[in-house]
């Protein structure tokens, strides 16, 4: 076997575990012997690292397939979808806004058109230190709808969405709140659908489905539409079906105030207050419900630079929650084993991109520094090819399943382009993790509200019910 063939075989062996193989019924061991000019410790260290990475990737691969198959063929749980009339409780609706002059009017006007009893809901735009026309636009909406909108203009205090919501919550006299970001356009029946699960006293939070409103802008918005479909139509609903851990997403979601206060209220020192709250509610014994038919429309990024900043912020916040809650989650005996495992996997999802990139580096190092003698190369090659095909396809299979469930089959033509979105997200997450570990702890790095750029014209259309 030539030197390059030996290196390639060594790489495949590492990806499959780099452990001794023994042929069925054979008298001679089919083993892998690794060697390197840098020493056997180096060779087996790389092999062990690749084995661990492959194991983690395999777990997430199986998770993707499990969720997809459940959504396509499993029993579907929509326990609150049939509740269309009730003695609806009073609710306060927060609209978080920081320099949102382009979109805030559309959100407020849509909320004025929902079919929830007007005397049972109060809309509170949370204007956090805006320096543009956001305050003026909010006040104009207040004048057009007297008694239905009560603005909360915040001119100081700690920056950040969680800090703003924390201050605004102190003014609330209802038992429930619903939170929207300012670019969201609620559908007519959304508030009823979000409030229906709160008829169950064990429910602490409810999450609806997010659908991009500006899908047709360019390739990026179309790819994000596919990503959102996979995340909500498959991931969130499958976790609901299987009794796992649906995630409160920070917008298009309702919260029971007694549950929020029981777990310590809003934490204003976190980047992802939604993920943090999801796990505090879970550890506190409260249920989070996902309602797939509670649909709301959002504006997704239309250029890659904005998308990169967004995904970096999400990754940092999610990893912060992972550090805070993983150990407590694993120790929580009030949760089932499957809930704990799914919760940990959900917390670790933003580590997969840097670990995958680390795997690419290890692969290159093994190719150039490790040689192997393999007596069963055909078997290794077949297994490696099988893993590459099935493992890499898992996330795309999930998106394809979501497209099928949405009955919008033409969108599947864009599936191949998701490699571009995947690579950009992987690099962005990797950069976010590096910044979080190396730079964000330096003196002078303050906490700030990193707002996503808006593209909608001020006089945007309203979405249909």
From TrEMBL:
Annotated keywords: Glycosyltransferase, Membrane, Transferase, Transmembrane, Transmembrane helix
InterPro entries in the cross-refs: Nucleotide-diphossugar_trans (IPR029044)
The keyword Glycosyltransferase is annotated on this UniProt entry: yes
SUPFAM superfamilies: Nucleotide-diphospho-sugar transferases (SSF53448)
Transmembrane segments: 41-62, 343-368, 380-403, 415-434
CDD domains xrefs: CESA_like
Pfam families with a match to the protein in the record: Glyco_tranf_2_3
Domain of life: Bacteria
Record-stated family: Belongs to the glycosyltransferase 2 family.
Protein name: Glycosyltransferase family 2 protein
Lineage, uppermost ranks: Bacteria, Pseudomonadati, Pseudomonadota, Betaproteobacteria, Burkholderiales
């Amino acid at each position: 076997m030539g030197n390059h063939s030996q290196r390639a075989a060594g790489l495949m062996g590492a990806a499959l575990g780099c452990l001794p193989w023994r042929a069925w019924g054979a008298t001679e061991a089919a083993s892998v012997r690794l060697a390197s000019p840098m020493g056997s410790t180096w060779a087996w260290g790389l092999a062990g690292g690749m084995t661990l990475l492959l194991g983690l990737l395999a777990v997430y691969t199986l998770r993707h397939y499990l969720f997809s198959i459940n959504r396509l063929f499993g029993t579907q749980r929509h326990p609150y979808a049939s509740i269309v009339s009730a003695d609806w409780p009073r609710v306060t609706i927060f609209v978080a806004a920081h320099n949102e002059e382009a979109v805030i009017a559309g959100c407020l006007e849509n909320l004025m058109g929902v079919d929830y009893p007007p005397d049972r809901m109060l809309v509170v735009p949370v204007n956090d230190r805006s320096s543009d026309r956001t305050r003026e636009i909010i006040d104009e909406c207040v004048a057009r709808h007297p008694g239905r909108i009560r603005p909360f203009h915040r001119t100081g205090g700690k920056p950040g969405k969680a800090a703003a919501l924390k201050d605004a919550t102190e003014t609330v006299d209802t038992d429930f709140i619903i939170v929207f970001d300012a670019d969201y356009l609620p559908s007519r029946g959304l508030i009823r659908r979000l409030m229906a699960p709160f008829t169950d006293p064990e429910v602490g939070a409810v999450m609806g489905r997010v659908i991009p409103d500006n899908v047709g802008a360019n390739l990026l918005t179309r790819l994000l539409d596919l990503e959102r479909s996979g995340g909500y139509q498959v991931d969130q609903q499958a976790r609901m079906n299987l009794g796992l851990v649906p995630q409160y997403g920070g917008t298009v979601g309702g919260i029971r105030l007694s549950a929020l206060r029981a777990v310590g209220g809003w934490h204003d020192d976190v980047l992802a207050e939604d993920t943090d709250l999801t796990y505090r509610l879970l550890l506190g014994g409260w249920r989070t419900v996902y309602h797939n038919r509670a649909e709301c429309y959002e504006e997704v990024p239309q250029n890659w630079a904005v998308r990169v900043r967004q995904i970096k912020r999400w990754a940092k916040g999610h990893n912060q929650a992972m550090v805070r809650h993983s150990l407590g989650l694993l120790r929580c005996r009030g949760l089932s084993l499957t809930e704990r495992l799914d919760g940990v996997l959900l917390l670790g999802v933003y580590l997969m991109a840097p670990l995958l990139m680390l795997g690419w580096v290890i692969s290159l190092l093994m190719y150039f520094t490790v040689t192997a003698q393999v007596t069963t190369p055909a078997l290794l090659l077949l297994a490696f090819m099988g893993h590459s095909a099935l493992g890499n396809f898992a996330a795309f299979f999930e998106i394809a399943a979501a497209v099928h469930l949405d009955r919008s089959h033409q969108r599947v033509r864009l599936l191949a382009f998701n490699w571009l979105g995947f690579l950009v997200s992987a690099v962005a997450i990797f950069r976010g993790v590096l910044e979080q570990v190396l730079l964000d702890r330096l003196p002078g790095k303050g906490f700030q509200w990193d707002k996503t750029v808006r593209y909608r014209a001020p006089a945007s259309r309203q979405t249909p019910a």
